[in-house]
Amino acid sequence: MTERLLIGSGNPGKQREYRYLLAGLDYVLVTPDELSPVPQEPEEDGYFLSEIAAQKALTYAFETGLLTVSDDSGLEVDALGGAPGYRSRRFFGEDTTAAERNQRLLAMLDGVKERGARFVCAVVLAWPPKGEAQIFEGIHMTFEAEVRGEIGLAPRGDRGFGYDPLFVIAGDGRTMAELAADEKNRISHRGLAVAKLRAYLGGAHQAR
């Protein structure tokens, strides 16, 4: 029987990217909303992307009994000391829209000439506890990647999500939001990290 792999995220954009990036592997990809009961999305608590991603993946794996992949990603701006970083989505408040976050980031960088930045991503693969074990072993693997660039002067492009319209890719000149989906999935921080995961899943790994 083909093993199910849970995409541990409630974000439709991430779900689409994972379905594309992991297509063709010998796994049935499922999302939390396809399960019954639907598991609650884990709280994001931690100071490092890998720590937050592991917490999400392990929580989903424990609650669902499924092999799970989750990630956390962030934008680190050099002139802001690495902010917004691991708090990228919540840096300007829980209820702000992506467009509002982009405008506030631009306001923080008003007049700043050196606008170097990087997108970073940590992808975690987590195994559920064995049998009826009451203590979760917390077995997981982490795959990381980054993409360098700079923050543009204004949003460009209508693809992607989050800070994609502001992030100008180093050596390319386009923003992440100006890339076609298949191109973005090849070169983005998440795409590169998931490529490492895909190589592992497609290899001769042993279920733990």
Task: Write structural notes for this entry.
By secondary structure, the chain is α/β, with parallel strands linked by helices. The chain has one domain: Alpha-Beta Complex (Maf protein). 27% of the residues lie in helices and 23% in strands. It contains five helices and seven strands, in the order E-H-E-H-E-E-H-E-E-E-H-H. Strands 1, 2, 3, 4, 5, 6 and 7 form a seven-stranded mixed sheet that branches. Helix 4 crosses helix 5. The protein is globular, with a radius of gyration of 18 Å. The two termini are 17 Å apart. The model has no long low-confidence stretch (mean pLDDT 89).
Please describe the structure with a list of short key phrases separated by commas or semicolons.
208 residues; alpha/beta; Maf protein; seven-stranded mixed beta sheet; 5 helices; 27% helix; globular
